[in-house]
Amino acid sequence: MNRRNFPASAERIAADINALAGLTEPGRPYTRRAFTPLHLEGRSFLAEQFRKAGLAVHVDAGGNLVGRRAGNNPGLGTLMLGSHSDTVPDGGRFDGIAGVIAALEVARTLTEQGIDLEHDLEIVDFLAEEVSIFGVSCIGSRSMAGIRPSEWLSREVDGQTLAQGIANAGGDPERHEIRSDIRVFLELHIEQGPILEAERLSIGVVTAIAGITRIEVKIEGRADHAGTTPMDRRADALVAASRMVLDIEALATTMASGRAHFAATVGEFFLLPNAANVIPSHVRMLIDIRAEKPEDAKLFARALQKTADEIGSASGTTISLNPISEAAAVPMNSYLQEVLSDIAGVIGQGHRRLASGAGHDAAFIARVAPAGMIFIPCRDGRSHAAEEFAETNDIALGAMVLLEAVKRLDNEMSTTTDAERH
Ligand code: HGY
Ligand code: MN
Ligand code: MN
What we know:
binds (2S)-amino(hydroxy)ethanoic acid, Alpha-Beta Plaits, 2 domains, Aminopeptidase, 422 residues, nine-stranded mixed beta sheet, alpha/beta, binds manganese (II) ion
């Protein structure tokens, strides 16, 4: 299928992505974090586009924006497409957003082609997929799966709790809207890695989403005068933290040389009192661990504790490790991988299967429905940076794969009661 007569409109996709890119904190392209007024502005834009596409719009209890298109036979359940529109700070214009807009383009194209589905179709913008200002992620998709921890609701930033943030987004923090009617969930996302571009492939079919463990490290040293305190009588929290960061990088590099995907990063770091002439007394840092194999995450956590004990005693500091969140690795539905690979083989310009080192809402929706994901290439594999870039033609091609998958699965699942999908 040559790209010129694509039913999906690359121009429309580009217009939507650019409109959302314009909703960013001034001077911080691109920053539209969940639970901020800018995110709500982005939501209003999306709701308007959903309505123009003929979708009935609502926000569910979890704070997810949902556009719904009734099927001819609603008793069959719902086909769901979606991703997220919130960004990391100083992030990109495509991470999550490409998936929401591609899903919207599927809905538009179905209407333009006059196609009525048997199943209901839903397009979803999940709330707070990224690590939000509250330090936790996938708020909306965890709620849809009924597993958002209630103790998270009281997390507070600048006088706003997570519960209030969910309510401000239109949700109801007191309850989950756990879905049992979703027959299939499909998510398009930029790869956020270099493989598809390097191998000149247009579609990646995701095999599994790596597990994500986040551990808070607190290091307590002793504030002292930087000029008078002898070097051998210090309890310098920053020196201890620096040794830990280098040990974390070395251990993760060793583990990443294995066959399964592994990565560990210290991306969040706070230092007190942060004054030139005071020996640092406190450090708080967050470790983000990604493991395709659960046993690798456990092995790393044990080695981390050993390193912390050794560095603590050698530096006279107290180092504590506090697990913040732990999400297991999630395999994508094998039948959906087959369907997406078949379709990519017809529509795409080369495809392959690959694991995702990034986390996605699909990892949580997979708990309540068969879930599948496709990746499209991104320039130099960059993401979570303003340089993040994806070609709108690639997004349109991915949207076509989603469209063909929706049409095929709608047909298959309305003619057989129990096609092998799990
Ligand atoms: O952090 C992640 O893996 C995703 O981009 N939220
Ligand atoms: Mn992201
Ligand atoms: Mn994302």
